[in-house]
Design brief:
The chain has 199 residues and is mostly helical. The protein contains 7 helices and no strands. The protein folds into 2 domains: 108 residues, no CATH class; 82 residues, Tetraspanin (Cd81 Antigen, Extracellular Domain, Chain: A). Helix 2 packs antiparallel against helix 3. This is Tetraspanin-3-like isoform X2.
Length: 199
């Protein structure tokens, strides 16, 4: 559970220039905060079977209700946290048009994105030509070609896929991981609740 939340927070931090959606950060925080609450509620469920007193049962019920509310909020955020494709394309287009100054954080972000995701341009490497660049950045070069300069005429040395589809895939995996963790937590809460009801 905590791993899924930390994963969402890490993705938001690494790629915030390209998808500045605060919901992904909120989702990560919600999922991380749910893990200790789940442990506390689980401990109460185990203790209730031994203590069997009203105040502990009330505290357990309160914990389960808070968990269900957090889970529902997380599920809604996971479903709606995706950025719109048109907006992402616009942001990437702006960043690629501004590319050039090596000390600019946006240029460094584009280079890091292309190196980490092994991609080039928005849709593919030809985006650099369309934007008026003579060559692609060296961050578009496949690592197996040591003498790659980003020359667009030697396209076999460049990453062929664009960054937009790779960013979308990364976001889908992150949202699916958080949704799966929340679903598992919901299932676990239902099991705990039914075990307390039966005892």
């Amino acid at each position: 559970m905590a791993w899924a939340g930390v994963s969402a927070l890490r993705i938001h931090r690494n790629y915030q220039h390209f998808c500045d959606n605060p919901f992904l950060e909120v989702l990560g925080c919600l999922v991380v905060s749910t893990a200790p609450l789940l442990l506390l509620t689980g401990g109460l469920a185990v203790g209730i079977s031994r203590w069997n007193t009203g105040p502990w049962q009330g505290l357990f019920l309160y914990g389960v209700m808070v968990l269900l509310c957090v889970e529902a909020s997380s599920a809604v955020l996971a479903r709606t946290s995706s950025c719109q494709r048109d907006w992402e394309t616009h942001v990437l287009d702006d960043l690629l048009h501004q590319y050039g100054n090596q000390s600019d954080p946006k240029t460094k972000a584009v280079d890091r994105l292309q190196e980490e995701l092994k991609c080039c341009g928005i849709h593919n490497y030809t985006d650099w030509r369309v934007m008026g660049h003579i060559s692609a950045p060296t961050s578009c070069c496949q690592k197996i070609f040591l003498n790659c300069t980003g020359d667009l005429s030697t396209s076999q040395q460049l990453y062929q896929k664009g960054c937009l589809p790779k960013l979308e895939q990364l976001r889908r995996v992150s949202s699916a991981t958080c949704s799966g963790a929340v679903s598992g937590l919901w299932f676990w809460s239902c099991l705990l609740h039914s075990s307390v009801d039966s005892s």
